[in-house]
Amino acid sequence: MKHKAFALVAALAAFGAGTLSAPVAAQQENEQFFPLLVYRTGAYAPNGTPWANGKQDYVKYVNATGGINGVKIAWEECETGYATDKGVECYERLKGKKGAVIDPQATGITFALTDKAPVDKIPLITLGYGLAASQDGGVFKWNFPLMGSYWTAADALIQHLGKKEGGLDKLKGKKIALVYHDSPFGKEPIPLLQKRAQMHGFELVLLPVTAPGVEQKATWLQVRQQRPDYTLLWGWGVMNSTALKEAVATGYPREKLLGVWWSGSEPDVKDVGANAKGYSALALNPHGTDSVLVKDILKKVHDGGNGSGPREEVGSVLYMRGLLIQMLAVEAVRTAQAKFGKGKVMTGEQVRWGLENLNVDEKRIGELGLAGLIRPIKTSCTDHMGSTSVRIHSWDGTTWKMQPDWYEADKSVIDPLVKEAADKYATDKQLKRRDASDCAA
Amino acid sequence: MLYRENGQFKTSYVADQQIFPIAQDRIAIGLLLLVAFVVMPLAGSEYLFRAVLIPFLILALAALGLNILVGYCGQISLGTGAFMAVGAYGAYNFLVRIDGMPLIGAMLLGGLSATVVGVLFGVPSLRIKGLYLAVATLAAQFFTDWAFLRVGWFTNNSTSGSVSVAGLNVFGLPIESPVAKYLFCLSVVCVFALAAKNLTRSATGRQWMAIRDMDVAAAVIGIRPVYAKLTAFAVSSFIVGVAGVLWAFVHLGAWEPAAFSIDRSFQLLFMVIIGGLGSIMGAFFGAAFIVILPIILDQVPHWFGIPLSTATTSHLVHMIFGALIVFFLIAEPHGLAKLWSIGKQKLRLWPFPH
Predict the structure, then answer these.
(1) How far is CA B179 from CA A21, A96, A121, B41, B186, in A?
(2) Do domains A30-148+288-379 and A150-283+390-410 have the same CATH topology?
(3) B332 neighbourhood in chain A, CB within 8 Å
(4) Where are the domains of chain A?
(5) Is residue B98 classed as helix, strand or coil in its secondary structure?
(6) From A97, which residue of chain B is nearest by alpha-carbon distance?
(7) Which residues of B are less than 8 Å from A208 in CB distance?
(8) Strand, coil or helix: A140
């Protein structure tokens, strides 16, 4: 017995030494490598999985349609389990394979990678999450919170409430509660909401929920006691469905409950079903299977049996978000290729340039097969977000119904906050703002 | 044949009491240190440093600290993550609030903050024992989780609750590159491992072990339980606190309380149990087992080109890893360190066992 144990230890040790020091298997020379950080296990898996499948399906789709100007995409997934330390390990592992752009898929991992990205020269796409201040490209050269941050989300929600009440001034004296995931993800919107509360004179009630959010009785007891006029839900994963169940149990009207775009997907409402009817959330991206792009993906990827997940999942909210993230990453590579050479493999620095000069206009959106479903995205050296347009969708008991109105974040509210936060970050990190020459390059 | 002490005569007490009485051991350790300090920095890849060796060293240090409390003094603690967090946030506050605070100064002050909190939460150990104490230390975990999430002062009023450090340097040498970080962690770990080893061989260490083996008997022969238990808590949380500083500052760079969650406490306790209770070497074995093995397992299908989905791989890793833990605990309940010492015993007689 003992000898066997020794043999096993020795074998494992030898094997470990062998695998860890062995050179990383190189992908083809002329392939663009995309590291895919995902989580398909753990408390956040129901939400992480469609997201991961969307990313992977788009990669397969691009390969099926001839690659990026002929450059095929190689990819590898790494399971982070939403844990920061595991995410850092994945990043280090896949970085070595010449990854040129990364979507960390978690706010905590984004925070840890934000310091590493400038050193390793790998841009981070954090579509709709991450650090709100990173919109400021003058300080955050390598971060791209495309299409929105938690601040633009919170801003859109308040605007929506104002519209419901018939004007932002009508919010005066109202009580708005924020039920949030007690982590950087949930805390990020607070400064903006506080500023809005000051501007419009509503009372902001902060109700933290300890991660992962399966225990919310105490929180909803407070909601019941305080009876806020509106409640904003800032959750992720299992926290969302639990919150909806608690709202039902508390008898809090679902019409007064509004979620961020991370709280408005199918896994969140599935368990509650018809009881969640009337609940609305921000819709960062379109969903459904009607668009040209989705039909094409079903035809070219899923019909060939290459789908990353079940066919029914295609077109769901988070699947589409993954798709969109990957699409913008590919567009960035395409933009970079237009400058640095078509049909070449782009480096992290070149993709960063591509992200900073992204211009997805109406025409391009049509070519991508999403006509009328997303707003144009145009980034610049100073604005790494490109667009703040967002819609609201409501759960009718069986599906998410998109509402027609678009909201744009109010620049006069967001910009000073972003600048202040970015400057503070720069001071803390002893960074200098990029000068004009750096922008031109 | 090669590994035996025949012919090595000790002519003084000093020679007899050294940490490694056998010459071959001294040579092996010397070689190991040579490899760690000279060969690795020259040969290792960035991935190896950042994703494997640095986390391994830091968690080995934390396991070492916990081993003093659990393995040497017999006080089960589930608050290790909490003491790491106290170290990390303590050091962070010393660093950002005091101008010109050097990294090592902040690190040691962080360790001291953890000591204070550790002793405080160690006080119940004077009354309660065993599993009940484990539950009491769990309170430390929940308390610090709460404090660092909700009390803005600790995070320098960071809006997101996440804090980060930058521009670390020791005596003017920047700790930025993976090699520099690795060497820094390695030096700290070596110093603390040596100190811990000597401490456990000293009168204090013997007191801890006496308390562990039977506290009533220890009290009868004149050991003060208060002193012995609280010093164990103090020393343990100091080392754990320093490990927390390294984990936050050197490994993560930016962190939130989730980095020191209850999972971390369990992970470290498993390291100590699997590595070997009451063994400095065991902390390293345990950390290697818990940190490195899943990383290897995770990559195995990829190396062999087996097309497994990410989720399946991840589930398999958990299953195999769990099975291995059970296997090792059945094969040798005293941990990997015990296996190691059995191996050395057998090697002395090899190839002529009697």
Answers:
(1) 16, 16, 18, 6, 10
(2) yes
(3) 2, 5
(4) 30-148+288-379, 150-283+390-410
(5) coil
(6) B47
(7) 149-150
(8) coil
ipTM comes to 0.84
State the average pLDDT over residues A260-282.
Answer: 92
**Which of B159, B299, B304 best probes binding to A when mutated, by most A CB atoms within 10 angstroms?**
B159
pTM for this predicted structure = 0.88
**B181 has a pLDDT exceeding 90:** yes
The Cα–Cα gap between A114 and A421 comes to 15
- Considering the domain boundaries, does residue B129 fall inside one? yes
Class of the CATH-defined domain A150-283+390-410: alpha beta
Number of domains chain B is built from: 1
Q: Could you tell me which CATH number the domain at A30-148+288-379 has?
A: 3.40.50.2300
Contact map slice: B 158-197 vs A, CB within 8 A: 159-162, 164, 166-167, 176
* Distance in Å, alpha carbon of A83 to nearest chain B alpha carbon: 8
In a domain, B30, yes or no: yes
Q: What percentage of residues in chain B have a pLDDT greater than 70?
A: 99
- Arithmetic mean of pLDDT, B103-124: 95
Residues A69-91 pLDDT 10s: 999 999 988 999 888 889 989 99
pLDDT tens digits along B7-28: 888 889 988 888 888 888 899 9
pLDDT grade for B244, boundaries at 50, 70 and 90: very high
Which chain B residues are within 8 Å of A81, Cβ to Cβ? 314
Q: What DSSP assignment string belongs to B203-242? A: HHHHHHHHHHH-HHHHHHTT--HHHHHHHHHHHHHHHHHH
Question: What is the extent of the structural domain holding B95?
Answer: 22-260
Beta carbons of A187 and B161 less than 8 Å apart: yes
Instruction: Provide the shortest C-alpha distance from residue A59 to chain B (in Å).
Output: 16
Gap between the Cα atoms of B32 and B184, Å rounded: 17
pLDDT tens digit sequence for A145-155: 999 999 999 99
Q: Is residue B164 part of a domain?
A: yes
Residue A16 pLDDT greater than 80, yes or no = no
pLDDT value at A56 more than 60: yes
Residue of chain B whose Cα is closest to the Cα of A182: B149
- Residue A45 has which token pair? 């898996």
Q: Residue B140, SS3?
A: helix
Q: Is residue B191 part of a domain?
A: yes
* Cα–Cα distance, A101 to A75 (Å, whole number): 11
